[in-house]
Amino acid sequence: MAKQISIFAENQPGKIKNVTQVLSNNNIQIKSITLDRGTTDYGAIKLLVDNPKKAEKILKQNKIPIKLTEVIVIQMNKTSNSIFSITQLLSNNNINIKDAYGFVTEKENKSLLVVEVENNSKVKKILKNKNINILTDKQIYSF
């Protein structure tokens, strides 16, 4: 399962640069980034990277506190696997989406939806029963 890196950071110039510089200097590719403003003083930087364990170690060595969270990465299409159909399916099964964001891969032009939910195994089963493609770690980290 994919691992999302979450970094709680002060809202001030240079914070995102510092994080991305540490990762870049250590040849870690950022696959996606999203920012959650949180409050006026603090927010969260959320990343998918090609090597989350290495990134975790390096960020901690640089005194950047992080949290690794398991997320599900779903491949979408324009019809049956749209954001609406996926969120409707999860809602109909009483699944709360704690966090979500989408992005498009550069190489294969795939539309992906990243979701954080309370019960990953249940959600994976629901999605697989509807033939919705969940990306493996290897697929996510290689695009």
What does this structure look like?
- With 143 residues, this protein is an alpha+beta fold.
- The protein folds into 2 domains: 68 residues, VC0802-like, CATH 3.30.2130.10; 72 residues, VC0802-like.
- Helix content is 33%, strand content 35%.
- It is built from 5 helices and 6 strands, in the order E-H-E-E-H-E-H-E-E-H-H.
- A hairpin with a 5-residue loop joins strand 2 and strand 3.
- The protein is globular, with a radius of gyration of 16 Å.
Largest sheet, order of strands side by side? 2-3-1-4-6-5
Number of separate strands: 6
Percent of residues in helices comes to 25-40%
Runs in which pLDDT lies below 50 for 5 or more consecutive residues are none
Shape: globular
Number of helices: 5
How far is it from the N-terminal to the C-terminal residue, by CA?
15 Å
In the residues, how many domains can be counted?
2
Q: What's this, in brief?
A:
The relative contact order is 0.20. This protein folds into two domains: 2-69, 2-Layer Sandwich (VC0802-like), CATH 3.30.2130.10; 71-142, 2-Layer Sandwich (VC0802-like). The chain is of the alpha+beta class.
